[in-house]
TrEMBL record:
Belongs to the OMP decarboxylase family. Type 2 subfamily. Gene3D superfamilies: Aldolase class I. It is an enzyme of class 4 (lyase). GO terms for biological process: 'de novo' pyrimidine nucleobase biosynthetic process; 'de novo' UMP biosynthetic process. InterPro entries: Aldolase_TIM, OMPdecase_type-2, OMPdeCOase_dom, RibuloseP-bd_barrel. This is Orotidine-5'-phosphate decarboxylase. Keywords: Decarboxylase, Lyase, Pyrimidine biosynthesis. Residues 16-255 form the Orotidine 5'-phosphate decarboxylase domain. It comes from Spirosoma terrae. It holds the Pfam family OMPdecase. One of its GO terms (molecular function) is orotidine-5'-phosphate decarboxylase activity.
Amino acid sequence: MTYNELSSQIFLKQSYLCVGLDTDPLKLPRHLLTESDPVFAFNRAIIDATADFAVAYKPNIAFYEAQGPRGWESLQRTLDYIPSECFTIADAKRGDIGNTSSLYARTFFDPSAAGLDFDSVTVAPYMGHDSVTPFLQYDGKWVILLALTSNVGSADFQRQPVGEQELFEIVIEKAQTWASHEQLMFVVGATQADVVSRIREIAPDHFLLVPGVGAQGGSLAEVSRRGLTKAGGLLVNASRSILYASSADDFADRARAEAQALQVEMAQYLAEL
Ligand SMILES: O=C(O)c1cc(=O)[nH]c(=O)n1[C@@H]1O[C@H](COP(=O)(O)O)[C@@H](O)[C@H]1O
């Protein structure tokens, strides 16, 4: 999916919501356990319930890999089921020496070589340019680089001062020499809303993937008012607060209500642009 297509979807749906498919087999409603693929049955119900309000879906690969080969099948079925107008993110947080990264890229981007067909993958920047560029060799596919993450440990390295800057700022500046805003996004945690204006100064056009609203307590309002651009420019993820809004038979209805509430708020911030 291109930058302009993603931007158009945001204004069409009046939403920059990304639903995180962090599907924990231990948290599935009991009535789904008799299904042949309970994880997929759950994801299908969540996608059906939220697709009116979401422009992106982000399966977190750990939840699938931890299930062994069955998990990989659930992931493939889920990816196939996501509506084609929605942007898909493999949240895998990969990155290694070049030849290994190219195999990771194939895993998520190349169905002709037994891989999946995601639009994007999350990548860790720690190993530098040659660990990231193999993911950029696929036309129409995106790298979403971890810049300033939502967790407390982000202070250990990402917020360390380096000269006049903090390390995450160097990551954002340097990565822009590897790819344009048409192929590169940055992860910025919603819990880091105080620095989103600073990030917009050094990355005015890049999409930011913003996890950390809902269960992690980040503020949608603060991130939106500082991070939205004329193209949209944000994908705000919520996983647990949508998926597990209810553990009973009404889980899909409750997920829909959570997603709709976020979309209604997002429409308001888009109207302020
Ligand atoms: O790359 C991510 O998506 C990510 C980066 C980050 O800084 N913080 C973060 O929470 N995430 C992911 O975003 C999702 C957040 O889930 P909830 O806290 O349940 O909404 C999880 O899949 C995390 O792995």
